[in-house]
Design goal:
The chain is mainly alpha-helical. The protein has nine helices and three strands. It folds into three domains: 44 residues; 69 residues; 139 residues, no CATH class. It has a three-stranded antiparallel beta sheet with strand order 1-2-3, with helices on one face. A hairpin with a 3-residue loop joins strand 2 and strand 3. Helix 5 runs antiparallel to helix 7, helix 6 packs across helix 8 and helix 8 runs antiparallel to helix 9.
């Protein structure tokens, strides 16, 4: 039952992410539909029977989570900014902390999973984007150019697609129309990699995996996330080359979160096949 709940919660997360992406960049109607499906899916989770523990022990954590959620909402409302991945993960982290104040073990288990997942994403984001920028470490441009743009261009060239590099993160391609596109920021795939790493961290904290298994899965996750993003970008450029920029941007809106959902499901399937080390409790 716990495994089923983990899969259902990941489905909810995928629908939630898909809904927010659609509302901000794609179809509002589809986004609302995905959010509605996420709400319906929560009814399928078996939260078990309430425990007898005094939830007042978690009051401060719950209030902290509530403060994070309200602060995120107020900030985005005041700044009139679009809802982005960082906002989603901040909001999710706050909601996860709120579950610690609810007197239900299974719901807290779900909250623990999402708290570790979202916290991992936020820490990685603050290190690789905020801290490195303050230290004048140009990591993102370096990664975008050498690990994303150059491999994508090389593969497309072998496929006889006319594409050339005209900037650190910019390429020009001529197909049914000539277009210049920037490969950078969210297109680098780092956001998806951070989220997938967070899923592994959250899941392995709930289940019993030894350190070697965790490290191996983190390496596999980073490699799979990187490869999937390269596949995603190549697919987008092939669509743009064959059908034009408007079709490419339409596919861009939908393809990312769909690939994320598929990859997350595959990684969790692998995790479920790895034997756990049972903890023997002293009598």
């Amino acid at each position: 039952m716990k495994k089923q709940n983990i899969f259902l919660f990941l489905l909810i997360l995928a629908l939630f992410l898909g809904g927010t992406v659609e509302i901000s960049e794609g179809s509002t109607v589809l986004g609302i539909l995905l959010l509605f499906l996420a709400l319906l899916t929560t009814s399928k989770i078996n939260f078990g029977n309430p425990d007898e523990e005094d939830k007042s022990n978690y009051t401060m954590i719950m209030l902290l989570g509530l403060g994070i959620v309200l602060s995120d909402i107020l900030f985005n409302t005041a700044s009139h900014s679009r809802l982005g991945t960082l906002d989603i993960m901040t909001f999710l982290f706050g909601l996860s902390l709120i579950t610690f104040g609810i007197n239900n073990n299974e719901l807290r288990r779900m909250g623990t999973f999402t708290a570790f997942m979202s916290a991992t994403f936020l820490i990685l984001f603050l290190v690789f984007f905020s801290l490195f920028n303050r230290l004048n470490i140009d990591f993102t441009h370096f990664f975008d150019h050498y690990f994303v743009l150059l491999p994508v261009v090389s593969i497309l060239n072998t496929m006889q697609v006319p594409i050339e590099i005209i900037g650190t993160e910019t390429v020009r391609m001529t197909g049914v129309e000539e277009m210049s596109v920037i490969i950078g920021g969210p297109c680098s795939g780092l956001y998806s990699m951070f989220m997938l790493i967070g899923i592994i961290v959250g899941y392995t904290r709930l289940e019993k995996f030894d350190n070697k298994q965790v490290y191996a899965m983190l390496l596999i996750t980073a490699a799979v996330a990187y490869t999937s993003n390269i596949f995603r970008i190549i697919s987008l450029y092939l669509v743009g080359y064959s059908y034009g920029s408007q079709t490419m941007m339409f596919v861009h809106t939908h393809l990312g979160w769909i690939i994320f959902t598929v990859v997350a499901g595959i990684l969790l399937y692998i995790l479920n096949k790895i034997p756990r080390h049972k903890v023997i409790q002293n009598p």
